Structures are given as structure tokens and as C-alpha cells.
């Protein structure tokens, strides 16, 4: 019997398949992945501290100068002069960063820019002649492109991972919008509750502190790219000659005019309606809509050609920019705030896609310069938009009509993007 039982084949009991577990929905997983890189969180936090003043300086200057001199046209002209000077000096500073490294160039350039901000503060406080305001604000032109340096670090860390670079670029754009969301609120709060010069003083302190901490993180700093053999002592060709880049920069120029005019016009609109202290919050809503859209855009897998996506984003931005013009005509501040929130939702996707185009068309050894040229175009547009917005506020019957300036700039950006589509 024992031999009979031992000879029988042994069959295993039926195995029931394990229940299938649904994959957990982790919407922030791509962002956790890029921030898990050693040193990424440290340089990101330092860069955010350095970038926050970018949303404070112009608002602080407008509130400080307009409150002291009683002219939004003068305030807009001063900020436009400073931004135009930055547009000229920015590419040179970025070229020095590409050639000598971030930490060696960013710190002295920032120190000089901070001295210019403090000079502007003193000139306003001491009621110096108007020309000193222009000279002081122009001295801030050496402010390094902190956002561009951060993007260059991501590009180096994920040089072989396009999906991670897309997520990092979206994160950086959302960080830009966060700074431009919190910056105007903080600047308005400081200038209206403490004293008019408080916004500029705090912004200068934050900028210098943030750049010092960012430059200290040498572990994630991209190495200085070796110059091609035979080019030592020769002047490298400017990225402006790269195919497709000029029409892209012109589109950035018109996009900057949207931002510059929208800021000045919104400040004047709030002042005209007796809600000056709420101006920063209204501008923050526009940045909040852009930041939220940027984070969502970073979770998507980009499809289609990059140039086509950029044209679509610019078209959406042009359409949404009509909302503030319509809302301002109603005279309702809450309606305008809601329109600014909606209008900002196309900004970050436009900037993310545009910066992707710049990175795709710029050599690695000129990446800081290429991205700074894009920022330079934006700053030039912001300068022109600020001046045009201030002129419109002072010469039109109502500040609400001045919202036609950003709407016109958006239409121009769409026209320029359509003209450059074939080159992209």
C-alpha cells in the first residue's frame, strides 16, 4: 500500500490568481523623482529665495516712485529703463557664466546689482533729481538670470532624459510663477504697511542671500564646457544666428510686453478704484493661474511637434488676454481678479514650450546665453510694455481702457509665432 501511494503522481492544489491591485495614482511622482537627485532640493530652495525678488523689484519701484513723485508715467519709464539695461547686459553676464562658471560670475554680478537697488532707494528717499532714478535702476542690469542657471543645472543632470527635462522645465516655470505670485503681494504689503522703500530693501537682501546660497552648491553646478579646438582667442558666434531663434525671440519680446503692461495697468486700476493695497493680490492671481497650469502641463506627456505646441499655447494666451479687457470695462474688481486668474492659465505652458524650443536649438556650451537671450527678450518686452502701459494710463480717460495694451501685445505675439512656425 505504501509503495502504491508513493507511486501515485502528486498534483499540486489549484493556485488562485492573486487579486490585481490597481496602480496608485501618484500625480506628483515625476516631480518627486527630479527632486530626489542629490543636491537638487538644496539648490532649488536657494534659487527660489534668489528668484522671489524678481517679482518684487518692479512693483516696489512703481509704488515707491509713483507715491513719491505722483506720476505713473515716470515710474513706468524708470522701470522700463532698468529692464532695457538688463536686456543689454544680460547676455554678456550669461556668456561670462558659460565661460567661467556660475559661482564665479553670479556673486559679483549680484553684488553690483544690489548696490544699484540701494542707490535707487536712497535717491527716492532723499528726493534726488529724476535722472538719478534712471541711472540707479540701470545699474541693476548685472542681475544674473537665476532661473536660467537653475534650468542649466537640470539640463546637465538630465542630459540623457528628455521626459525628466520636460518635468524640470515645467517645475521651473511654476517656480517662476510662484515667485511672481508672492513677490507683488509681499512688495505691496511692505510698501503700503511699513514705508515706501521697504519693498526694495527686502528684495535686495533676499536676492543677495539667495545667490550666495545657490552659488555655494557646487555639487550640482554644470561644468564649464570646453571650447572647440581652434577657437581660443576667437569670438564665438552668437546664438542669435541660430536657425529659428530670431522669430522665437521676437515672440518672447511681445509676450514680455503683455506682462509689463498688465502689471502697470493693474496697479493703476486698483489705485483708481481705491483698492491700492489689493493690487498685489490681483497680480498674484494671474501668476497663480499660470503656476497651476504649469504644474499640470509638466505631468502631461508632450505630443506633436514642439513648434506646433508653442503656436497653440500662444494662441490660447492671446484669446484669454481679452478677458481682463472685458472685465475691466464692467468696473468690477472681483470680475477683473477672476479674469486675471483665467488669463494666466496659458502663460506657463507657453513659456515652458518656448524655453524647450530655445534649449533644443542652443548648443550645450552656450545654453546659459541662449536662455538668457530669451529672458532678455522678455525683459525688453516688459520694459516696452511698462512704458506703454504707463503712457496709456496717464493719457486715456479711464485705466480700464489701458487693458487694451496687453491685449494688443498678445495679438502681436500670436502673429509673430505664426510667422516663425515654418522655421521651428
Compute the average pLDDT. Answer: 79
Largest sheet: none
Question: Separation of termini?
Answer: 84 Å
User: Domains counted in the coordinates: how many?
Assistant: 1
CATH overall fold name: Growth Hormone, Chain: A
Protein structure class: mainly alpha
CATH class: Mainly Alpha
Gyration radius from CA atoms, angstroms: 25 Å
Shape label:
globular
Task: Give the total of beta strands.
Answer: 0
Under CATH, the homologous superfamily reads: MFS general substrate transporter like domains
- How much of the sequence is in beta strands? under 5%
What percentage of residues falls in helices of 4 or more residues? over 70%
- Regions with little confidence, pLDDT below 50 for 5+ residues: 1-12, 229-235
Keywords: Membrane, Transmembrane, Transmembrane helix
Transmembrane segments: 48-66, 72-93, 105-128, 198-216, 248-269, 275-298, 310-329, 335-358, 370-391, 397-417
InterPro entries: MFS, MFS_trans_sf
Protein name: Transporter
Overview of the molecule:
GO terms for molecular function: transmembrane transporter activity. InterPro entries: MFS (IPR011701), MFS_trans_sf (IPR036259). The protein is mainly α. It has a single domain, classed as Up-down Bundle (Growth Hormone, Chain: A), CATH 1.20.1250.20. 72% of the residues lie in helices and 0% in strands. Residues 1-12 and 229-235 have low confidence and may be disordered.
What is the element layout, followed by pairings?
Layout: H1 2-7, H2 29-35, H3 40-51, H4 57-69, H5 72-100, H6 102-125, H7 130-138, H8 146-157, H9 162-193, H10 198-216, H11 245-272, H12 279-299, H13 306-320, H14 322-329, H15 333-343, H16 347-361, H17 367-395, H18 404-419
Amino acid at each position: 500500500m505504501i509503495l502504491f501511494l508513493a507511486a501515485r503522481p502528486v498534483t499540486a492544489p489549484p493556485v488562485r490568481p492573486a487579486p490585481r491591485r490597481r496602480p496608485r495614482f501618484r500625480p506628483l511622482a515625476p516631480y518627486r523623482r527630479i527632486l530626489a537627485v542629490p543636491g537638487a532640493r538644496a539648490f532649488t530652495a536657494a534659487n527660489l529665495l534668489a528668484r522671489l525678488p524678481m517679482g518684487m523689484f518692479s512693483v516696489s519701484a512703481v509704488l515707491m516712485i509713483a507715491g513719491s513723485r505722483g506720476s505713473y508715467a515716470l515710474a513706468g519709464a524708470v522701470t522700463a529703463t532698468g529692464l532695457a539695461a538688463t536686456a543689454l547686459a544680460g547676455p554678456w553676464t550669461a556668456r561670462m557664466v558659460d565661460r567661467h562658471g556660475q559661482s564665479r560670475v553670479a556673486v559679483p554680478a549680484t553684488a553690483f546689482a544690489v548696490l544699484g537697488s540701494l542707490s535707487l532707494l536712497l535717491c527716492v528717499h532723499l528726493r534726488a533729481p529724476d535722472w538719478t532714478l534712471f541711472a540707479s535702476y540701470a545699474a541693476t542690469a548685472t542681475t544674473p538670470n537665476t532661473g536660467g542657471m537653475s534650468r542649466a543645472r537640470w539640463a546637465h543632470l538630465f542630459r540623457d532624459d528628455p521626459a525628466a527635462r520636460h518635468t524640470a522645465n515645467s517645475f521651473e516655470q511654476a517656480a517662476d510663477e510662484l515667485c511672481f505670485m508672492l513677490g507683488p503681494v509681499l512688495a505691496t504689503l511692505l510698501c503700503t504697511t511699513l514705508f515706501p522703500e521697504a519693498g526694495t530693501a527686502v528684495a535686495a537682501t533676499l536676492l543677495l542671500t539667495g545667490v550666495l546660497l545657490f552659488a555655494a552648491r557646487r555639487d550640482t553646478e554644470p561644468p564649464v564646457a570646453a571650447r572647440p579646438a581652434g577657437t581660443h582667442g576667437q569670438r564665438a558666434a552668437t546664438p542669435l544666428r541660430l536657425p529659428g531663434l530670431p522669430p522665437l525671440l521676437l515672440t518672447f519680446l511681445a509676450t514680455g510686453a503683455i506682462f509689463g503692461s498688465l502689471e502697470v495697468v493693474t496697479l493703476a486700476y486698483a489705485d483708481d478704484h481705491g483698492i491700492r493695497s489689493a493690487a498685489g493680490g490681483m497680480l498674484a492671481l494671474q501668476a497663480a493661474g499660470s503656476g497651476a497650469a504649469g504644474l499640470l502641463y509638466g505631468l502631461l506627456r508632450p505630443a506633436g511637434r514642439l513648434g506646433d505646441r508653442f503656436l497653440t499655447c500662444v494662441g490660447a494666451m492671446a484669446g484669454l488676454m481679452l478677458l481682463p479687457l472685458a472685465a475691466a470695462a464692467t468696473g468690477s474688481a472681483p470680475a477683473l481678479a477672476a479674469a486675471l486668474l483665467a488669463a494666466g492659465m496659458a502663460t506657463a505652458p507657453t513659456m515652458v514650450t518656448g524655453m524647450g524650443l530655445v534649449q533644443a536649438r542652443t548648443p550645450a556650451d552656450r545654453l546659459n546665453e541662449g536662455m538668457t537671450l530669451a529672458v532678455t527678450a522678455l525683459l525688453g518686452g516688459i520694459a516696452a510694455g511698462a512704458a506703454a502701459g504707463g503712457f496709456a494710463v496717464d493719457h486715456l480717460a479711464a485705466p480700464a481702457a489701458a487693458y487694451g495694451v496687453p491685449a494688443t501685445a498678445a495679438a502681436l505675439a500670436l502673429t509673430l509665432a505664426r510667422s516663425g512656425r515654418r522655421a521651428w
